[in-house]
Structure formats: structure tokens, C-alpha cells
Design goal:
Helix 7 runs parallel beside helix 13. The C terminus is likely disordered. The chain is built from 13 helices and no strands. The chain is mainly α. It has two domains: 33 residues; 212 residues, Orthogonal Bundle (MetI-like fold), CATH 1.10.3720.10.
């Protein structure tokens, strides 16, 4: 067997595995999408069949889901919490990482390793204590939960920014200082534009996590300010009954914004992660 044939066979095997993995990930999304246009009885009896003249229900599932859950209110809370949390995480974590890189010493190293250590602490270990403290401090509202998300998201974010910030030459900052830049103006005019690839990556990863998060909003703000995952959960009725058609419709509506955001910025994820890995 020649080298060319071996290479061709390996390529076929590789692409076969990739196509199979892609199909395995995409298939559930497609199934949820076309089931959202079927009557609720037909979804459970024939979940893998496409809608036909008998099973097709139009947009009735979407209407029922939006009406029963207050979807637009939940969407507003999810949007507000996600956008503000991501903005705070990106801004404060990038500034922290830059400071820790430039302030060499045992204290800065200790703070950095504390951020890294926080990534390995399971959320389940602190969730009950955290929810009690959040209630005592008055953080059980859409604005207060942003501070909690900052705490949980800062470990990975500082770690990623730190690896990228180490590659920025000191000569650039020295030149900016000579030109009259102070620490604040230097960060926003010089440093942060250079951190843009990794900042985009951090923003996307945190946005996907916060938008889809169920447990933290449920524990902290509960039913008072329903986010989309919490609103979807309230479709379940008594004795385990649920409107499966409305559930499918709301899952589609909740996925659309984050999928659009991801597709629009997916190149930045790879670019930022690769650049951070190489430069760190």
C-alpha cells in the first residue's frame, strides 16, 4: 500500500468521524426545531417523524409558550443580566490580569494562583452558602447577580487574559508613558485594543454560559425575576404533566439569540484561544 493511499484512507476516516460527530450534535437541535411545529400528542408518539398535514400545528406552540411563561419579560431579564455581566467580566478581569502581569512579586503571584484555584472549586460546594450570603447582602436581584457572575467567571477570564497579556512588550507601555499616558489612558488606548482577540473569546464563552445558566438564577433571584431557563421550567404542570409542544417552541426561541451571536463571532474564539496559548 503506497503512502498516498494510506494518506487518502486516513483523510476519509478523519472526515467520516468529523461528519458523524457533527451530525450527533446537530441532530437534537433539528429534532427540537421541527417538533416545535407539531401537536403535543404527536411529539410524544412519533418524535422523529417530520410534521405532515395531520400533525402540523403552525405557530400555536410558540403562542402558547410565550403567553404562559411571560417569555418577553424573561428574555429582557436574561438579556440584561448576560450583557451587563459579560461587560463587567471583560473589563475588570482584563484590568486585573494586566496589573498582575506587570506587578511582579509574591503577592501578585499569590493573587493569580487564587484566581486559578477558584476554577477547580465545584459550584455545588458553595451554592447554598452563596445563596444565603446573596440574600443577606441584597444581591438577589438582576443587578446583584451580576456581581455573583463576576465572582464565578473571573477565574477562567483572568487566566485567559493573563496568558495573553504576558506577550505585550514592555517597550510599548514605556513609549506610551513617554507620550504622557497615565495608567488608565494607557489601558484603554494601548493595552485593551491589543487584548481584543482574547477579550472577544472571553465574552463569547461567558455569554453562552450566563445565557443558558439555570441553577444560579434559580437559587439567587428565583421566581421574582424569571430568566429564560427558569421560565421554560415553569411549563411543567401538576403530576408531572407538561406542554411538550410549548416547551419545544421556547427551546427554539431561547437558542436562536445565542446561536446567532456565536456564529457571528466564532472565528474570534479560535483566534483568541490559539493566540493566548501561543503567546502565554
Amino acid at each position: 500500500m503506497t503512502v498516498r493511499i494510506k494518506k487518502a484512507m486516513l483523510n476519509i476516516l478523519f472526515y467520516s468521524v468529523v461528519i458523524f460527530a457533527a451530525a450527533a450534535f446537530i441532530a437534537p437541535i433539528i429534532i427540537v426545531f421541527y417538533n416545535s411545529f407539531k401537536g403535543r400528542l404527536y411529539i410524544t408518539s412519533s418524535p422523529f417523524s417530520l410534521p405532515d398535514t395531520e400533525t402540523f400545528s403552525g405557530i400555536q406552540n410558540y403562542i402558547n409558550g410565550v403567553r404562559r411563561t411571560g417569555f418577553f419579560s424573561a428574555f429582557g431579564y436574561s438579556f440584561f443580566i448576560t450583557v451587563l455581566s459579560v461587560a463587567v467580566i471583560v473589563l475588570l478581569c482584563s484590568m486585573t490580569a494586566w496589573y498582575l502581569v506587570r506587578q511582579r512579586g509574591k503577592l501578585s503571584k499569590g493573587i493569580y494562583y487564587a484566581f486559578v484555584f477558584s476554577m477547580i472549586v465545584p459550584f455545588q460546594m458553595v451554592m447554598f452558602t452563596m445563596s444565603k450570603v446573596a440574600n443577606i447582602l441584597g444581591l438577589d436581584n438582576p443587578l446583584g447577580i451580576v456581581i455573583i457572575y463576576l465572582g464565578f467567571g473571573s477565574g477562567l477570564s483572568v487566566f485567559m487574559f493573563y496568558g495573553f497579556a504576558k506577550s505585550i512588550p514592555m517597550e510599548i507601555e514605556e513609549a506610551a508613558t513617554i507620550d504622557g499616558c497615565g495608567p488608565i489612558s494607557m489601558f484603554f488606548k494601548v493595552i485593551f485594543p491589543m487584548l481584543r482577540p482574547i477579550a472577544t473569546t472571553v465574552a463569547i464563552l461567558n455569554a453562552m454560559w450566563i445565557w443558558n445558566d439555570y441553577l444560579l438564577p434559580y437559587l439567587v433571584i428565583g421566581n421574582n425575576y424569571r430568566t429564560i431557563p427558569i421560565a421554560v421550567q415553569y411549563l411543567e404542570g401538576g403530576y408531572g404533566s407538561r406542554d411538550i409542544g410549548a416547551l419545544m417552541a421556547l427551546l427554539v426561541l431561547s437558542v436562536i439569540p445565542i446561536v446567532i451571536f456565536y456564529l457571528a463571532a466564532q472565528k474570534q474564539i479560535v483566534k483568541g484561544v490559539v493566540a493566548g496559548a501561543v503567546k502565554g
